[in-house]
Amino acid sequence: MKRSSTSGTTADGGAVPADGGAGGAPREPVDLLEAYRTELTGYCYRMLGSAFEAEDAVQETMVRAWRSYDRFEGRSSLRSWLYRIATHVCLDLLKGSQRRARPMDLASPSSVDTPIGTGLPETTWIGPVPDQRVLASAGDPAETAVARETVRLAFVSALQRLAPRQRAVLILREVLSWSAREVAELLDSSVASVNSALQRARATLAASGDTAADTAPQPLDDAQQALLRRYVDAFERFDMDALTALLHEDCTLSMPPYALWLRGREDLVKWLLGPGCGCEGSRLVPVAANGRAAFGQYRADGTPWAIQVIETADGRIGALQCFLDTERLFPLFGLPARYGGPPPA
What region holds the SnoaL-like domain (predicted)? Predict the structure, then answer.
């Protein structure tokens, strides 16, 4: 797997020069640190499974780095030093915490008649993250594709099955393409220990059935874009015949914070016509989350209802992942508190 995007680094992964480059003016420490915020947020999100916890972890990393910057002696690159701090921040946050998951990781699919139940705490769930918070805006297309694939909700959920240090090893080695020696230095460990942890992590992910492919998907092609346009049209018109034609036969619907989830397009349509009938008249505003197409869903009265993250499969809609914590998520995605057309660019 190739190295993912590394905004703020030189071509060989080293630190940004303090003088800003050839002939440039010296850069302030805060600017040097901030150059790494996006990639560090992506790393912490993969570690923690929460956009909010990832941003808190990166902020703590920046604070610690700022306070210690005058003692940074350059024995490693600035990037390596920041990842060392971020890793220890994440490992501290993960002590004693339960692993985050998706509804399908916790139980078998429900039926349309199953009571929706009581919502579980936010700490139960893998949450969505806006692409712009974790993916570099420019870079090598192959690296960008790898980065997109490794923030996919299913893959982030699979990472949570790993012990925290194994998780860090696998992300650093397989997602960011660090050498075993570099990871050993970061973790104050040995190369043999890192290689052993990586082997165990790979085995666990293989058993989970969800690993990031070496050949990651490219940005949406014309056919996928057309599929999404047809989906928006069918959903907003609440045309169940048109929607059924777009859904994969094994399409899933999940709705954190509720544990209930459904599988199969027949059950999805029954849900929308029954318990989910309040979705009629909704409007969908496009956003981008977890390397996938996504939408902010507003009810007919203009109130926020969900962030939908869409997975496609075999030319159809394969998963509708709907996150209902709109009070926190809509501001995170830059969406207005009431529907009034697309958000400003």
Answer: 228-316
